[in-house]
Amino acid sequence: MAHFGENKNFSNPVVNWIDNRLPIFTMLIKEYGVFPMPRNVNYMWSFGGIAMTMLGIMILTGIMMAMNYTPHTTLAFDSVERTMRDVNFGWLLRYIHMNGASFFFIAVYIHIARGLFYGSYKKPRELLWMFGVVILLLMMATAFMGYALPWSQMSGWGVTVITSMFSAIPLVGDGLVTWLWGGFSVDNPTLNRFYALHFLLPFVILGVVFIHVWALHVTGSNNPTGVEPKTPADTVPFAPYVSTKDSVALVFFLTIFLGVVFFYPLALTEVDHFRKFDPMQTPAHIVPEWYFLPFYAILRAFTMDITIPFTTVVLLPAKLQGVLAMFGSIILLVFLPWLDRNPVKSGRFRPVFKWCIWLLFVDFFVLMYSGAKPPEGLPLIMGQLGTLYYFVLFLVILPVLSFKEKNLPVPASISADPGCCKKH
Amino acid sequence: MDSTKDGANRREFLYLTAGAMAAVGAGTSVWPLVDSMNPAADTLAMASTEVDISKIEAGQTIMAVWRGKPVFIHRRPMNEVTEIRTEDWKTLRDPQSDEDRVQKGHDEWLVLVGVCTHLGCIPMGSKMGQPKGDFGGWFCPCHGSHYDKSGRIRKGPAPKNLAVPAYTFVTDTLLRIG
């Protein structure tokens, strides 16, 4: 009770009885009823809720599919095909689950892009942002392990390529890969542990999402001006104003999602995902799912060993550079609140930063294109330039802009922003 | 308070030693969990494979399975062996002479783990009609690594030569890998 102040008095005696013992209704009203939201949030602020909905959909369909899945190398592929053909609505569960992963990532990438553009990672939301990066990493691990479960050519070879990255680590690399595999090749022990972890991690994500939302409710939401609310005139209650707006966005999003599920369920899937895994034959062209392509392009952008000058002694092999850069590209987001120290949050009032961030969004798609193509010729060069910009932006441009940028005047408050509020 | 000269007291000492003991205990209890993910006894037991090599013609390659991985067994024509041994190997990325990659007296037999040392794909070049890369050996389609006729890395992202597994000739026509 102490946490949520005075208990409310509910007219329903049952609700009242419960609330006096566990103030859950008081909490819900405080956090989701009267919770003050900046009155100027746009539709970009709906994607956190959309992502949470996608997590729920993934967990539900995943559990139903787990009831029909057999984690064994000889049976896994067929058990997934059985889900598709024989299980009642099995096809629907699977198409929702496999396309759901893509749409979960779409929602999360838009959510991150919003955070980047409007400076939502800055004080006082640094920890909130960092937990977000943890969620992204957990999502990537979960999606990767889930992709392994149908035990198709793409599953098996995707797992082989990604786990083999760890062999780049000096000294312990090979032992680490054997430990990850539980053997000397990607085989049944690997499939078993991936299944266990693919089942576990979504609930870990749920836990970190809870912390993420908790931290959000301490600081409150950022908004397009990046100016914190100062008076009650700057905010509206979450319900019904923002909850309604979020519902509209959610319905739009789910409409597109279900459109893909029903009409183009295989649009985002490689054909080699429908052939059983053959450990003796690598498909001609292995590509990860689209949401990993930008990072895959970063991995492959490094093609030259770094040697001690004028000798052939290799200091940093190309493979290790690629692996470090790929993981580094996400890990550096953790430090973003300290890389960008410009006091102005929103990109609206930062003329240079605004274009740099837009270029990053373009860069993301350039890298995605490069990651989908064989690593040679123009796509490789695009991947290398894209990787260069990614790191230069975060490690050079943002730190320099922290002090050198001429920011535009920031409105005194949310209500004072001319673009904010129409007079009714 | 029975403080010692440098200010540390009995209570602090007990906290520190009890804490250290708990940390060691926690670490020890985690080890069985971590080690359970290492290869199990039955996985380790599949450690060797025997292959009949009597039917392999010069110039041919067969693929055997060892520990779930492909092994290329390539019978090289002797002129190919002489040719590759004239090349300078000291400047290669992973310098190793062809003599060091085969067994003495069995110079025509090249035995390789068929796993690209970059990210684990199976290089092409063992079967008829497959691309052999710029150096006439193997070519990995995943990220474009080229291996020569001795299985040494010559071009592309792979850091090491194709590995040579431990093997023995049980007889002239029977090879034991592992």
Please render the helix and strand layout as text:
The complex is a heterodimer of chains A (424) and B (178).
Chain A: H1 13-21, H2 24-33, E1 36-38, H3 47-66, H4 76-85, H5 90-117, H6 126-148, H7 153-164, H8 173-181, H9 188-219, E2 235-237, H10 238-263, H11 293-300, E3 306-307, E4 314-316, H12 318-334, H13 336-339, H14 351-372, H15 377-404
Antiparallel strand pairs in A: 1-2, 3-4
Helix pairs in contact in A: 3-5, 3-9, 3-10, 4-5, 5-6, 5-10, 6-7, 6-9, 6-12, 11-12, 11-14, 11-15, 14-15
Chain B: H1 10-35, H2 41-45, E1 49-52, E2 61-66, E3 69-75, H3 78-85, H4 98-101, E4 109-113, E5 136-140, E6 145-148, E7 153-155, E8 167-171, E9 174-177
Antiparallel strand pairs in B: 1-9, 2-3, 3-4, 5-6, 6-7, 8-9
Tell me briefly what this model is.
The complex is a heterodimer of chains A (424) and B (178). Chain A contains 15 helices and 4 strands.
Can you characterise this structure?
The complex is a heterodimer of chains A (424) and B (178). Chain A has 424 residues and is mostly helical. Chain A has 15 helices and 4 strands. A two-stranded antiparallel ribbon of chain A has the order 1-2. Chain A has a two-stranded antiparallel sheet with strand order 3-4. By secondary structure, chain B is α+β, with helices and mostly antiparallel strands. Chain B has 2 domains: 1-38; 43-177, Rieske Iron-sulfur Protein (3-layer Sandwich), CATH 2.102.10.10. Helix content of chain B is 24%, strand content 24%. Chain B contains 4 helices and 9 strands, in the order H-H-E-E-E-H-H-E-E-E-E-E-E. Chain B has helices at residues 10-35, 41-45, 78-85, 98-101, and strands at 49-52, 61-66, 69-75, 109-113, 136-140, 145-148, 153-155, 167-171, 174-177. A 3-stranded antiparallel sheet of chain B has the order 1-9-8, with no helix packed on it. The model of chain B has no long low-confidence stretch (mean pLDDT 89). The A-B interface holds A 157, 160-165, 167-168, 178-187, 189, 193, 279-282, 284-286, 300, 302-303, 305, 312, 314, 317-320, 322, 374-376 and B 34, 37-40, 43, 63, 65, 67-70, 91, 93, 118-122, 141-144, 156-159.
